[in-house]
Every structure is written in C-alpha cells, then in structure tokens.
Amino acid sequence: MKRISAAILAVLTIALCLCGCGAKKDEPLRIGLLSIDDSLPFFMAQELGLYEKHGVEVELIPFGSAADKESALEAGRIDGDMTDLVVTALLKKGGTDVKIVSVALGAESREGRFALLAAPDSEIESLRDLSGVPVAVGDNTIVHYLNDRILSDAGVEDIKTQNIPSLSLRYEALLNGSVAAAVLPDPLASLAAMSGAKVLFDDTESAENLSQSVVIFTADALEKKGEQIEKAMAAYFEAMEYINANPDAHNVRGAVERFSSVPESIFDVYETPSFTPAALPAEDTLSSTMDWMMEQGLLQQGYTYAEMVDDTFCRRWSK
Fold first, then answer.
1. Which of 89, 108, 115, 278 has the most CB atoms in a 10 Å sphere around its CB?
2. Counting Cβ atoms within 10 Å, is residue 253 exposed (0-12), middle (13-18) or buried (19+)?
C-alpha cells in the first residue's frame, strides 16, 4: 500500500512539474511609437509604473519613421501602434485587419496642433491666396486630407499640393522658400512661426479637429491579447489624466523633453499637450475621411464605423 501511495505521489509530482515547466508567461504587449506629442501618455505610463500597477507587461518600441512602424505592424512584430484614420484604412485595404480603440490626440480642437503656413518672404497672406499654389504635404496622408479640407472649407477651388513626405525637409523647404506654403505639426509649426513663417490656419482654433491621431491594434492581438490591451489602455488613460493635472511637473516636462522631439530653442515656451481619455473618433469625422479617400482613389469603398472602431476599452474605462 505504501509502495502504491509513493508511486501515485511520484506521478503527481512529475505531472505538476511538467505543468509548471510548460506554463508560458504572457508575451508582452508590443506597441510601436514615434517620438511625438501623441505618444507621451504611453511613455508617461511607463515612467509612473502604471503598467505594473494594472498588471500588464508592455513593450514600447520606438521607430524613426511611420513607414517602418506600419511595416512592423504588417509583419506582426508589434501588436498595435499610434497612427491616423487614413493609415488605418490603408492598412485594412492592404490586408492587415486593425481597429481603432481610442483617439490618441485631437479629440478636442485644442489638442494636437497642425498649421498651414506660408513661407516668410512669400506674398501669400490668406488661404484664398493659395488658389493654384502647391502646398507641401505628404501625399495620401492625414496631412494631405487636412490641407484639402482647410482649403475647400475656405472656398479655394484650385487646390494643388507638392509631395514632401519628410517633415524636416518640408520644414526646411518652407523656410528657404523652396515651397510657398506647407502643412506642419507642432513643434515644427511653432518653430517655423518663430522663424518668420506666416500662420494662415491653426487647427486648434477651428470648431473641429481634423488631424486626430488614433491608437490601433491588430484583430489578432484583440482576439488573443484582449485582457492585456484592456489593462494597458487603462494605464494609458490614467497617464493622460496625470499629464492633464500636472502639465508643469518636473517628471512630465522631463518626459516631454525626452519623448516629444521638441527643439531646445522653443522648449521653455512649448506647452505640455493636453489629452482626452477614452475618446473615440466621431462618426462624421470618419465618414468625411472615407469620402476623401474615395475621391483620391485610395479606396473603392469606404469602411463603416463598425469596421474601423472597437469601442470596448473606452466604454469600459468610462464606466
């Protein structure tokens, strides 16, 4: 009897060992980011230990360009990233099923400044002066959409653009007069204005923010890592609240300095961005973007709100 009990005990011990050895720790949630204002809450959540607080391991992976970031998403090397409505639709069109889970920056018009600026020595003084004048943008991007909406709403009929994808080259072309006008995001828009460029339109002063950035995850990640995403987004939204409540705190300003690519020459006067936790794109905004993409020949058929957006995590946070 003792031998039988000992044998059973040995079998159970081996089984438990095998189970323990075979148990796999959850892979970290991998999120691709650029060093811009929009990414700040993700990095701030890391600085504050909020991912640990919510019980999730998150790996923030910096990229030098949006193209490299989206390629990593398509290849499955990251689970999600921060991008915009145009890129989200193009990813879906290209076969990478993704969904928006939150607005990153731009839920309110005061958030995420983009400006349309004229070159310092140009004779352009208003948006209407841009009729027939090429404006430097990145072709088939949210900036291209923003430019077309701004000029169309201003009554400009002959809208022309010049493709300069690199923000730094676009900034330099504006200041040296190689282009008459350009659309730039902050902090480059602020730096250009300080260098003599004329601000013709500032989207933070409009009723609607047209330049929203969004957080997206792949359908595969949403299915397999849904619990991790929920915890990570809770930490992300909490970091937004912290930044809003403490915009001038030393740790917040330090994060802006390290992660937002603000030029040293304007850092002291550059305001910490504000964020709206658990916000989603408005249906009208999405619909307008889809219409523009079809007009440009980027899509044959626009995606519906349900196809583009997963409101699960914003809804749960709001409760």
1. 115
2. middle
CA torsion, points 155, 161, 166, 172, in degrees to nearest 10?
-80
Is position 19 within any domain?
Answer: no
Asked if 101 and 216 touch (Cβ cutoff 8 Å), the reply is: yes
Phi then psi for 160, rounded to 5 degrees? -125, 150
Predicted pLDDT of residue 19? 47
Token pair, residue 215, equals: 């957080």
User: What are the backbone angles phi and psi of residue 6, rounded to the nearest 5°?
Assistant: -65, -40
**Per-residue DSSP letter, 309:** B
Please work out, in degrees rounded to the nearest 5, the angle formed at the alpha carbon of residue 121 by the alpha carbons of 117 and 125. 50
138 lies in some domain = yes
Structure tokens at 89: 């639709």
In whole angstroms, give the CA distance from residue 169 to residue 174: 9
Residue type, 217: F
Q: Count CB atoms within 10 A of the CB of residue 303.
A: 19
One domain, residues 187 and 310:
no
pLDDT digits 0-9 by tens, 107-121: 887 887 899 999 999
Residue 314 near residue 278, CB atoms below 8 Å: yes
Domain of 155 in residue numbering reads as 114-205
Domain match, 197 and 141 both: yes
In whole angstroms, what is the distance from residue 311 CA to residue 286 CA?
14
